């Protein structure tokens, strides 16, 4: 543990946790003065190939309000077979199975290297994964064809016992029955009518069997699977059927007259999908995958009317309060999202269209349930196809890299309270002694539900130090936080992952240096950014920027060293040096700037920002720029216009875009065809190098970034130019360039 | 003498007709005059009775022989003869008299009281049937007469009194009146006279009967002489006397009548003879004569009052009862009309002609008026003023069947295409060009015959006039020379100003547990596979333009995509029944040939798919809504075929509850049983009509399904309802499939609007039938087929003009099954009269009954059934009383005098009153009543005729070789002989009644079992055996079925078997178990009512 940097990195790798402060100020007052709140980025399912799950259940603290899990930080009395909870100090008896416990015979959860440990629970019926496709049929022919192929392909990627269902929609919504032979059967719903879950279930015949069926066939223990099987079937059984069905899927047959948008009942389709799962498989892992090629144009959740002459709302309209349908639609989708979350299901949105598709209104469906949001131009692009395929990639165990229906339970030692979380989660509204009254993000609870998460899903969790200034913590005291994540693994097992961490307290007055050195500016930047974005969702853009600025100023005030009236004297220590730069780019980022972005795009960017881990988040805030030249290996360069040089190739990664930019000279060379001449093979290699690197990034990232290959003067060079710090412009190019 | 002879022909009633031909108008006038004469009656009464009888008797009978049987034949013969002779009023009369004779027989019974006659009566009865034609009146008259004759007896036979009245009815007396002395005699004679003439052709003329009475007048002269004799005759053994008369001329023919007459009639015959001479007599004669009895009648009658409710009281009389044979017999009237008017084509050129009866086969030649197959009126002579109309109380109504199917030898209406300008119409009243329009100013203008507006003739339509003021091209243009024709409609006549697309048929099949269990679904699907090849098409078209769609349903609806490009049909379930919509556009309605493979596959799979269903609940309104929405989406009109099994109790709009409550019967709340439970059905129907969506409903209930509510939509959209209670494939398959085939194949017009225009002075004020009206003039029909009729009632607006008559124009705008928009026009000119007698002479009782039944059946929706019955009786009494008062010659109040044309009114009316709707028996369900009520609403005259008075055909009476349909017998148990087999049909039911002592050979050859006891009761199919009898009977059954619009399921009933109760229900002349009066009793009651009105 040589430096804090290493410490931080090690912690991240082991526990998936990055704190803004790694030494905690010991009183509320001081903590407040630190400007950046005590918070962490927590990746619940941080991939740990070296961490095999243990096959038993965790031992819990017996105090009903605590129920913390036995962990390496607990004090254990081996002789008395007792352990003391490090959160509530309750003394607990070990369960009988732990009878043989001793200093040399410790269970895994007591070993320090198992600060993160995963338990596998054998109890309870295992229910298969469920994938419910909700497919828009108001697509262009080739788009629909491409989508159908992607869906058919996906069938082969699903585990054979996974249940699949199909709902298609256009003017009407059709729920396809998958079990029948011969005639293909579907239940049709009007696209304009909002139905309650009860109505939907009645209409699908899901509630009917309750009475007569039971009497008719008393020996039918598995009522549920039987009932729902009409719509949700194991892949292996209806593979062919469904493939045919998808193959026969036609574009919505209702005529669309000139000057109209097709009538698209997305709102009702989603509502039915939610209702269907709600009635049949509550609290089991399920993905509702919505594929839509345009905005909802009718029924509840409509975003725009079907008149083409009235364009879909823009930021401008929203500011002018001109977006007629927005509030109602948002309400509809929020209601759906909350219901879905309550059932432990998640909703993915795959929206591919050139115009907006209503992501702004629908975003909560993905945001609150941990679903994915993918935005593309067409289903017939590799961007969509590969992104979609990537959802079904598997880990080294052959399991999907996704998990379902998780609840995250956070426990803190008594000096801390939980202020809130920001991420793809909803509050479970569990009040407790460790819940703060001040909310940051989604607060007022110590538990959140994350219906869908993958290995990189990351939550920002914010704390509040409540220890009073006049009640100092003894030297060497440590604060502890425990994250208990219950989830359904993609192999359908229930698992519990427990991460317990502890950090030292320090008195900010006497040990400010300590605290300063333990500042994690990257984590802090991301955590502050999440707060900013969270605010931006509900507040006016300029207010958020002002708030961010003020925070930055205050931080610099607190930790910077300067002489009054002398800007040149300003210094920040290493651990803070990059922070202002992050803030600078954050202010320019699409997360906070809506200019030049549609409301849908903003929603899309913010969605991803709120769930990616620290590294990806940082890339989003401040894109990475690599420079390739004959002078040596590629090197990262400043995201600044001064980095754009004629004899360099630049590779920029903004997370959402990968841009390869050939400098002026390089572009000329390429045009002249040097790369094809054997004597200039090195040039060929130079040209190839960024391509290879880009490919590597593309392979790993979800969702697939937009890939742009351009050169000096190319129209698409704008993607690069818009990102770099404009230190050189046509106004100052020469002045600065010379010096 | 001749007259007498004619009398024998029993058809007596019909008789008058023959006369008519010859006489027609002139005779009438005469008659009217004659009425006055009635006076004589008083005396006559006595004679009359005898009289009536006499005629028949007179003829052959008078003598004991009374070979009734011969009568029939004889009559026929006579009738014909008469005809031929025409010129010879006498001769004709003769036949007519014969008719009377028959009645007389009827009267005889009464007469019988007289004693001497007694013996004869028996004979008469047998006769009865034939004589029936003789109008009741006649018989009654006879009755009275008899009473009169033998005052004592009558009194004793209080009950009988009534009969007497009948006699009086014979109104014919009035004629006799002329005779003064005659009175009675006349009556009888008259009746006879009528009978004679009427017999066949005469019958028709009978209508004129009213006038017929007058005839008596003419007859009067003779009568007197006759009377004299008659009276004596009566007085004596009336019989003998009468006979003599009859004998004189008709004797041989008369025989039959004679038989009847024998007893009492005796005297009457003479009358006849008298009348006959008068010729008019026929009319009068027929009835009048009979009247004699009235006197007696009257007295006995008193008891009658109770009658209405129950014949009971009168019963005491029984001993002396009216002889059923003496009262007017429907069979006789029908037979006479057949014989007299079935041979020559009915040419429509003359205004105000009364067409032959609906039971007669005749050919129609359109010469400017619509065929009676399209329009029949209650009267072809309309009173000029509303006062007259009010006085007569005869409803003025037309029964219109705009798309009636014509026999193959009559041409269907020509289609006229006037190009883009469309049909030529009057600018003011919008009437269409028709033969009655008057061209003036050299053909440059025309005057509208309806509103008198003068219109310019468009240049392209201009044509010169000939010297008579007729366009020279009149005969080249159907609209100027025919009564019925069609115009091609222009786009202005189309919805949304767009030519319609071809209509569609949607089959909507209940697949709930009940439907599956009974095998209905499988049967239906199997049948549809072949049936779809026979969708109606425009004549000449290679394939039908109609598209088809399929829906199945229980609690939810399943739509099927059967697009030709699909390998398999696709099912789409819509469970949102509260807010129905159509889930697919493309592929729901398809061309049968293009999608045959998919459709076949679908029909194969439907029964399989639902084979295990446990769903018992069904919906109804959403199903229709769905069909309608589908048509709306496809922008076409069409028809839904709904196959439904149970009360729709599933949670959905139009949900019904079981509200069947027999306790409501005979209470003020009974009407609720006929009203729909909720308004949802009417609302829906309205929407359907707007879309041109017609619904045909096939019901297969196991229990109460609330037909009253379910049938609302079919009813208002011009559809049909079929009901197969307790459907079982084995038993009902043939019936259902046959109905279905016919229903699917029949030609239909869609999205129709019908409007009836009339010349100034009268106006269509009320409409009955299966349709919807959103205003007071336009009858809107989502669909209209060749079986549906609309009955229209007219009222006076103003004074009519005798010269110009009254015109009706019925215009029907509809979409043909190929999607062509057309206008069908029917025109009919009627006469107008200032004399009530003319009205009564030109009435059509069958049509009248059709109207009254529909009126009553609608009445039960709003009034207690009892009130409705009373209204009918009152109206009928008023009609007859008015006649008696204004047209019949004065006679004793005790006489029942019926106009010739209406002599069947009482018997038919009684049938209506006893029908299930108005007087339900214990075994009749609420659904049955609602079903029948609904059926009758759109029945045409022929259907109501046989429905209310079933045909009872003896099968073993005529030689096996004879190929003609056997002559029916009256619907009374007395007419059944236990050694015979009978067929009974009423258009809905078909019974084969087997007498207990039928010959074994017959049993063997029909049923293939050796004895009566081995015949399975309730059998519904006769074994196919290769012997003449079996072939003949089965052939007959087939031909009966072919005549009816619905397949009649056969039920074999054995005498003395419990099923016989069911059968007896249809013997409408008898007292019914549910309290319906017997014919005789009712007649008595009627007479009493009339007398009350007159006093």
TrEMBL record, chain A:
Membrane topology type: Peripheral membrane protein
Annotated localization: Cytoplasmic vesicle, COPII-coated vesicle membrane; Endoplasmic reticulum membrane; Cytoplasm, Cytosol
Domain Sec23/Sec24 helical: 520-618
Pfam families per the UniProt record, alphabetical: Gelsolin, Sec23_BS, Sec23_helical, Sec23_trunk, zf-Sec23_Sec24
TM regions (residue ranges): none
InterPro entries noted in UniProt: ADF-H/Gelsolin-like_dom_sf, Beta-sandwich_Sec23_24, Gelsolin-like_dom, Gelsolin-like_dom_sf, Sec23, Sec23/24_helical_dom, Sec23/24_helical_dom_sf, Sec23/24_trunk_dom
Function: Component of the coat protein complex II (COPII) which promotes the formation of transport vesicles from the endoplasmic reticulum (ER). The coat has two main functions, the physical deformation of the endoplasmic reticulum membrane into vesicles and the selection of cargo molecules for their transport to the Golgi complex.
Family: Belongs to the SEC23/SEC24 family. SEC23 subfamily.
One Gene Ontology molecular-function label: zinc ion binding
Domain Gelsolin-like: 634-720
GO-annotated biological processes: COPII-coated vesicle cargo loading; intracellular protein transport
Boundaries of every Sec23/Sec24 beta-sandwich domain copy: 403-506
Cellular component GO terms held in the UniProt record: COPII vesicle coat; cytosol; endoplasmic reticulum exit site; endoplasmic reticulum membrane
Keywords: Cytoplasm, Cytoplasmic vesicle, Endoplasmic reticulum, ER-Golgi transport, Membrane, Metal-binding, Protein transport, Transport, Zinc
Occurrences of domain Zinc finger Sec23/Sec24-type (ranges): 58-98
Name of this protein: Protein transport protein SEC23
Top-level taxonomy: Eukaryota, Metazoa, Chordata, Craniata, Vertebrata
Record-annotated Sec23/Sec24 trunk domain positions: 127-392
From TrEMBL, chain B:
Residue ranges with Pro residues bias: 8-19
Membrane topology: Peripheral membrane protein
Span of domain Sec23/Sec24 helical: 845-944
Keyword Iron-sulfur: no
GO process annotations (BP): COPII-coated vesicle cargo loading; intracellular protein transport
Domain Sec23/Sec24 trunk: 500-744
Skewed-composition ranges (Polar residues): 90-100, 165-175, 183-215, 273-287
Bias (Low complexity): 20-34, 60-77
Key words, A-Z: Cytoplasm, Cytoplasmic vesicle, Endoplasmic reticulum, ER-Golgi transport, Membrane, Metal-binding, Phosphoprotein, Protein transport, Transport, Zinc
Domain Sec23/Sec24 beta-sandwich residue range list: 749-832
GO cellular component: COPII vesicle coat; cytosol; endoplasmic reticulum exit site; endoplasmic reticulum membrane
Superkingdom classification of source: Eukaryota
Record localization: Cytoplasm, Cytosol; Cytoplasmic vesicle, COPII-coated vesicle membrane; Endoplasmic reticulum membrane
Ranges for domain Zinc finger Sec23/Sec24-type: 423-461
Domain Gelsolin-like: from-to ranges: 963-1036
Similarity comment: family membership: Belongs to the SEC23/SEC24 family. SEC24 subfamily.
Protein name: Protein transport protein Sec24C isoform X2
